[in-house]
Amino acid sequence: MATRHVLTDLAAAAVRAGLPEVELESVGGVDAAKRVAEGEKLDLVFLAEGALRRLADDGHVVADSVTPLMLSQVAVAVPSESEEPAAHDGGHAFPDAAGLRAALQQASRIGYSTGPSGVALVKMIDGWGLGDELGQRMVQARPGIPVARSLAEGEVDLGFQQLSELVGQPGIRILGVLPPDCAIDTVFAGAVATAADDRGAALDVLRFFTSEDAAPIVAEHSFAPAGS
Question: What is the pLDDT, as a whole number, of residue 228?
Answer without folding.
Answer: 62
